[in-house]
Amino acid sequence: MMGRMLRFSLFGESHGRVVGVLIEGVPPGIKVNLEKMKAELERRKGIRRFSTKRRENDEPVILSGVFNGFTTGFPIAVIIENKDVDSSYYEEIKNTPRPGHSDYTAKIKYFGFNDYRGGGFFSGRLTAGIVIAGYFAKEILAKAGIEVKAYIKSIGNIKAKDLSVEEIFISKNSFCPDEEAFQKMLEEMERARKEGDSVGGVVEVVAINVPPGIGGPYDEDLEGDLAKAFFAIPAVKGVEFGLGFKLAELRGSEANDPFVVKDGKIMTETNNCGGILGGISNGMPIVARIAFKPTPSIYKPQRTVDLEKMEETEIKLRGRFDSCIVPKALPVIEAMMALILADHLLRWLSWKGLMSLGKR
């Protein structure tokens, strides 16, 4: 289970009866808008022509924790039925692990007892539960005026220009504010699709109005918790904050963010650190970039092994796969950031509330 005060756990498998999420720690009295939740799940479907041909309605069913349209403060359980399932192909390849997938490592870890159909618990299908949990986290953050927005920074070698926080949040393009770059990204995804291949990319996510003081050192580290959450998303292979790895190329005089006073508030002149210092938020926008590898399931022949015969062989996949998962990852990334921020916010508010009591 991920989180401390706000916790969530996923369950189900890609080709099982349902996928779902259990969320604990959501305060009582939060109004639940099912249509808003469904809209978030709809975003997870991405751009249709680059997504799997598997079509699921993703109709969330709330089993507990909500009464008369409001959260009760008790655990919230939500499920989504899997209806468009075809497992026949996975029986054919159960002993020939797909390169780039968890097929082999999962078989070793769970001694072959795991559900391998469609990737089982390792499938991107499970991210529906993350998005649902993220909906509740966003509602918590909204009460503090905190907003989270993700967009496609790059697809393959096609990169969006550097954008201001304002440009990111006011853009009407739900995928990428840089329209010119986005059109080229679409072309790159289309090329990969036509070639029976796949392509990866980078998502940038920004959180604004986060108060200073959230997080802590070591196991309370806000960056550490965010990074762990992002890496828990299937296909994520890299995470950086602020300028990230570029900071290693700079001198301290270039990398440091000078402190200034603006409108009566302490701010930094630049935001090279991405809004976090010492594992604690500094009041500036929190900026992270997450790298997604290309979808491992492709239609080109690939080398693998037959685990029963212990022989090298070739596998040519057929089935329903994404040529690029980056567009559909946007609400998942937002959800993960919202969940971690909401968890840390609730922890910080408990301290703040105690401090406000003064001496008794």
Automatic annotation (TrEMBL):
<feature type="binding site">
    <location>
        <position position="278"/>
    </location>
    <ligand>
        <name>FMN</name>
    </ligand>
</feature>
<feature type="binding site">
    <location>
        <position position="43"/>
    </location>
    <ligand>
        <name>NADP(+)</name>
    </ligand>
</feature>
<dbReference type="GO" id="GO:0009073">
    <property type="term" value="P:aromatic amino acid family biosynthetic process"/>
</dbReference>
<dbReference type="GO" id="GO:0009423">
    <property type="term" value="P:chorismate biosynthetic process"/>
</dbReference>
<keyword id="KW-0057">Aromatic amino acid biosynthesis</keyword>
<feature type="binding site">
    <location>
        <position position="49"/>
    </location>
    <ligand>
        <name>NADP(+)</name>
    </ligand>
</feature>
<keyword id="KW-0028">Amino-acid biosynthesis</keyword>
<dbReference type="Pfam" id="PF01264">
    <property type="entry name" value="Chorismate_synt"/>
</dbReference>
<keyword id="KW-0288">FMN</keyword>
<keyword id="KW-0521">NADP</keyword>
<dbReference type="GO" id="GO:0004107">
    <property type="term" value="F:chorismate synthase activity"/>
</dbReference>
<comment type="pathway">
    <text>Metabolic intermediate biosynthesis; chorismate biosynthesis; chorismate from D-erythrose 4-phosphate and phosphoenolpyruvate: step 7/7.</text>
</comment>
<dbReference type="GO" id="GO:0008652">
    <property type="term" value="P:amino acid biosynthetic process"/>
</dbReference>
<dbReference type="InterPro" id="IPR000453">
    <property type="entry name" value="Chorismate_synth"/>
</dbReference>
<keyword id="KW-0456">Lyase</keyword>
<dbReference type="GO" id="GO:0005829">
    <property type="term" value="C:cytosol"/>
</dbReference>
<keyword id="KW-0285">Flavoprotein</keyword>
<protein>
    <recommendedName>
        <fullName>Chorismate synthase</fullName>
        <ecNumber>4.2.3.5</ecNumber>
    </recommendedName>
</protein>
<dbReference type="GO" id="GO:0010181">
    <property type="term" value="F:FMN binding"/>
</dbReference>
<dbReference type="InterPro" id="IPR020541">
    <property type="entry name" value="Chorismate_synthase_CS"/>
</dbReference>
<comment type="similarity">
    <text>Belongs to the chorismate synthase family.</text>
</comment>
<feature type="binding site">
    <location>
        <begin position="293"/>
        <end position="297"/>
    </location>
    <ligand>
        <name>FMN</name>
    </ligand>
</feature>
<keyword id="KW-0274">FAD</keyword>
<comment type="function">
    <text>This reaction introduces a second double bond into the aromatic ring system.</text>
</comment>
<feature type="binding site">
    <location>
        <position position="320"/>
    </location>
    <ligand>
        <name>FMN</name>
    </ligand>
</feature>
<dbReference type="InterPro" id="IPR035904">
    <property type="entry name" value="Chorismate_synth_AroC_sf"/>
</dbReference>
